[in-house]
C-alpha cells in the first residue's frame, strides 16, 4: 500500500499517515490491498463507527476532527437576516454604516450589537459599532489601530497662566506625530510595557518589538492629537473642586506595531473562513478556543497596554516640563475587544470607535480640533452593551473634506473659537465632523456629562493639505 492509493481515496495530511499505519497492520494480518482499501472506504463513510477502538480508531478520530473543521467553515455562512440591534442617533448616521452593521449581525457568531450616534462607514465593522460574539474575536471588529485611546490630565494651573506661545513650544518639543516618526534616541523614554515577557511569546511580537520600542511615547497621523485646553467642572467631581483648570487631552493608539498586528491576524482570520461571503470578508473571526484566536487576543491586549503607555509618556513629558503633578487623570480605550458578561453568558464585546460606559465608569468623548470634548460617566445601558460614542464621528470622508472645504472658512472657524492649530490637514477640519453637541444629546441614556474640555492649542500630524 503506497501513498498514491490513499490520496486517490481523498485522504490528506495527517490522515494519510494514520491510514498507512493501519494498512501496514492489516497487511501483517494477511489482508489484501483491495480488502484494506474497502475497509478504508468504510471508515471514511462512517468514521464514528470506528472511533471507539481498533486499528482504525486513530484514523477515524482524525477524519472526525477534519469533518468538524469543515462543518465550522460551512457554519461561516451568513444568517439570512441580521439579528436586531438598537441604534442611537439614527438621524445622524449614514446608510452605509447601517449596511455594514447589518452584515456584522448576520455572522453566525454574533449575539448582540448596537450602533452609536457617531457611527460612520469603516472597514468591516463600522466606526461606532459595538458587536458581541460568542467564543470569537474579529480583528477588523477591533480595528487597525488596536487600542486607540484617550487620556486627560488635569493640571494645577489656571487656564490663562499658560501663554499660547509657551503652549506651542511645549507641544513642538515634547510630542511627535506621523507614520514611522519617533523621538531622537537620546530623548526616548522607557516604560514598563516594553519589559513585559509577552513580547517573546510570539514570532510577530518579537519581530515588532524594536518598532514599538522606537516609537514609544509618540502619536500617529489622521485624527490623533495632543492639546492644551480649559476643563470646566460644574460641580465637585474627579476629586476636584468645581471650577476651570488647565488640562491636556490626547488621542493616540498603538502606532505601527498595532497596525501590523491587525494586518497579520486579519489575513489569518480570512484563511480560517475561505468561504465567507464577500461582503463579510473583513469580518472574518478567530475562535478563542483555537491557538490563532488565543495568539490574537494576547497581541491585542498587549497593543492596548502599549497604546496607553504612549499616552502616559506624552502626559509625563508635558507635566515634567511644566514642573507640576496632575491633579487627576482619566483614560479609556475605544478600539478593543473585552470579555463581558451579557445576560447569562460571557461574550466578546468589540468596540470599534466606541467608549466603554459601564455603570459609573469614566470616559472621554472628544469633539474636533476646535469643538469641545467631554468627560463622561457611564450609565451601563444593557442595550448598548454598556457603550457610548467615541467622538463626534465623521460626516465627510477625507477625500470629500479635502475637495469641498475652504481653508479660509476652516481658519475662520478656528479663530472664532480661539484655537491655535499646529499641523492638521483640512481632512480633519471641524466641518468634516458631526456636531459633538448633537452626538452627546442623543446618548443621554448612555452617559452623564460631568465636565467639558475646550481646546486652545492643538497639535496634530501635518496633513496632505495643511489648514
Keywords:
single chain; 467 residues; alpha+beta; tRNA-splicing ligase RtcB; 2 domains; eight-stranded mixed sheet; four-stranded antiparallel sheet; 13 helices; 35% helix; 22% strand; elongated; GTP binding; ligase; manganese ion binding; 3'-phosphate/5'-hydroxy nucleic acid ligase
Range of strand content: 15-25%
Number of strands: 16
The H-and-E topology, N to C, reads as HHHHHEEEHEHHEEHEHEEEEEEEHHEHE
Shape designation: elongated
Q: How many structural domains can be distinguished in the coordinates?
A: 2
Could you list the spans in which at least 5 consecutive residues all have pLDDT below 50? none
CATH topology of the largest domain: tRNA-splicing ligase RtcB
- Characterize the main sheet: 8 strands, mixed
CATH architectural name of the largest domain: Alpha-Beta Complex
The gyration radius over C-alpha positions equals: 27 Å
Helix fraction by DSSP (H/I, runs of at least 4): 25-40%
Mean pLDDT: 94
Coarse structural class: alpha+beta
Annotation field: number of helices: 13
Characterization of this structure:
- The protein is of the alpha+beta class and 467 residues long.
- It folds into two domains: 3-75, no CATH class; 127-460, tRNA-splicing ligase RtcB, CATH 3.90.1860.
- The chain is 35% helix and 22% strand.
- It contains 13 helices and 16 strands.
- Strands 4, 5, 6, 8, 12, 13, 15 and 16 form an eight-stranded mixed sheet that branches. A four-stranded antiparallel sheet has the order 1-2-10-9. Strands 3-7 form a two-stranded antiparallel sheet.
- β1 (110-120) and β2 (127-133) form a beta hairpin.
- The protein is elongated, with a radius of gyration of 27 Å.
- The termini are far apart.
- GO terms for molecular function: DNA ligase activity; GTP binding; manganese ion binding; RNA ligase (GTP) activity.
- This is 3'-phosphate/5'-hydroxy nucleic acid ligase.
Amino acid at each position: 500500500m503506497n501513498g498514491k492509493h490513499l490520496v486517490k481515496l481523498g485522504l490528506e495530511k495527517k490522515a494519510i499517515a494514520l491510514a498507512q499505519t493501519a494498512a501496514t497492520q492489516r497487511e501483517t494480518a494477511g489482508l489484501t490491498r483491495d480488502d484494506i482499501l474497502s475497509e478504508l472506504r468504510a471508515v471514511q463513510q462512517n468514521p464514528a463507527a470506528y472511533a471507539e477502538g481498533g486499528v482504525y480508531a486513530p484514523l477515524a478520530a482524525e477524519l472526525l476532527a477534519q469533518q468538524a473543521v469543515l462543518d465550522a467553515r460551512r457554519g461561516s455562512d451568513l444568517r439570512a437576516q441580521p439579528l436586531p440591534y438598537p441604534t442611537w442617533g439614527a438621524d445622524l448616521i449614514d446608510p452605509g454604516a447601517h449596511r455594514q452593521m447589518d452584515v456584522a449581525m448576520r455572522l453566525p457568531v454574533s449575539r448582540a450589537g448596537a450602533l452609536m450616534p457617531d457611527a460612520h462607514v469603516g472597514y468591516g465593522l463600522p466606526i461606532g459599532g459595538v458587536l458581541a460574539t460568542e467564543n470569537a474575536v474579529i480583528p477588523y471588529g477591533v480595528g487597525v489601530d488596536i487600542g486607540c485611546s484617550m487620556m486627560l490630565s488635569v493640571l494645577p494651573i489656571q487656564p490663562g497662566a499658560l501663554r499660547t506661545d509657551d503652549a506651542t513650544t511645549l507641544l513642538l518639543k515634547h510630542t511627535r506625530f506621523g507614520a514611522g516618526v519617533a523621538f531622537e534616541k537620546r530623548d526616548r523614554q522607557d516604560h514598563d510595557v516594553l519589559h513585559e515577557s509577552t513580547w517573546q511569546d510570539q514570532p510577530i511580537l518579537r519581530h515588532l518589538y524594536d518598532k514599538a520600542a522606537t516609537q514609544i511615547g509618540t502619536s500617529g497621523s489622521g485624527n490623533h492629537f495632543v492639546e492644551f485646553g480649559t476643563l470646566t467642572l460644574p460641580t465637585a467631581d474627579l476629586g476636584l473642586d468645581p471650577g476651570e483648570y488647565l488640562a491636556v487631552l490626547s488621542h493616540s493608539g498603538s502606532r505601527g506595531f498595532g497596525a501590523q498586528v491587525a494586518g497579520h491576524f486579519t489575513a489569518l482570520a480570512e484563511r480560517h473562513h475561505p468561504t465567507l461571503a464577500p461582503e463579510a470578508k473583513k469580518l472574518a473571526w478567530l475562535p478563542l478556543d483555537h491557538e490563532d484566536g488565543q495568539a490574537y487576543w494576547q497581541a491585542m491586549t498587549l497593543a492596548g497596554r502599549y497604546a496607553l503607555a504612549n499616552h502616559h509618556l506624552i502626559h509625563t513629558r508635558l507635566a515634567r516640563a511644566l514642573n507640576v503633578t496632575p491633579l487627576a487623570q482619566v483614560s479609556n480605550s475605544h478600539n478593543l475587544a473585552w470579555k463581558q458578561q451579557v445576560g447569562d453568558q460571557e461574550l466578546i464585546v468589540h468596540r470599534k470607535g466606541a467608549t466603554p460606559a459601564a455603570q459609573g465608569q469614566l470616559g472621554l468623548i472628544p469633539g474636533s480640533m476646535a469643538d469641545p470634548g467631554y468627560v463622561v460617566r457611564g450609565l451601563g445601558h444593557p442595550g448598548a452593551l454598556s457603550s457610548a460614542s467615541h467622538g463626534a464621528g465623521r460626516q465627510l470622508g477625507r477625500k470629500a473634506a479635502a475637495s469641498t472645504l475652504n481653508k479660509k472658512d476652516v481658519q475662520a472657524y478656528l479663530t472664532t473659537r480661539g484655537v491655535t492649530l499646529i499641523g492638521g490637514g483640512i481632512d480633519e477640519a471641524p466641518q468634516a465632523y458631526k456636531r459633538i453637541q448633537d452626538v452627546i444629546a442623543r446618548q443621554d441614556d448612555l452617559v452623564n456629562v460631568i465636565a467639558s474640555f475646550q481646546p486652545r492649542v492643538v497639535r496634530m500630524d501635518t496633513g496632505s493639505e495643511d489648514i
